[in-house]
Specification:
Blueprint: H1 2-28, H2 78-88, E1 92-97, H3 102-112, H4 122-128, E2 132-137, H5 141-149, E3 154-155, E4 157-161, E5 167-171, H6 177-185, E6 208-209
Parallel strand pairs: 1-2
Antiparallel strand pairs: 1-4, 3-6, 4-5
Amino acid sequence: MDMQKIFLVGIVIILSFVLIMRYKSIVSCPNENTSNFPLPNNSWHNEKPRPERERPEPEKPKPEPEKEKPGGLTAQTYDEALEKAKQNNMPVLFLIGAAYCPYCVEMERSIIGNGKDIAPAPEAKKAMDQYIVCHVDSGTDEGSGITSKFGIQQLPAFVIVDKNGTVLKHDEKSMSLDMFVQWLDNPQFFNQQGEQPGQPKQQIPGRYILGHRPWVPR
């Protein structure tokens, strides 16, 4: 029995030694087949680094859109017109006429309106919206003062002034719709001298000389 025990102990020692040597060889040579002795899973060491997320560039502040000038502004008096012109940085358009002027009445009905119950033609309104519009009845005290101030001699008359009251453009005649729109939309009119108020004029078809006041039905 003692010999058997010694024999078995020897076998166990030999097998243990073989297993230890085998395990060492596997650890030192990882390329060998290790299916029988799996190693701990260290696959995370071989993972590729995750790419960093691109940070979005900060949005550039958008330029503020240019404020459009308000259209459809009107005034009843000379002082009110200049006050609104300064507030809105716009020129003033004086439309000067009278009830006794047939050319004025026709233009009011078909083109420029009267600022009350007659609306202007759409094309004329679009052009007039660039201005502070002041309809002037030269038959009233206020209108007579404005007519005299600009030296108007014939009707209908049209005067454009800047916010300081300086005359930029002036004309005294009846116009068709196309002529009127072109007269207002000319981009170079601020640089033109044109006719100055107060100059003596000859009677021209389409103009009514002040002083002759035939009755004209409205």
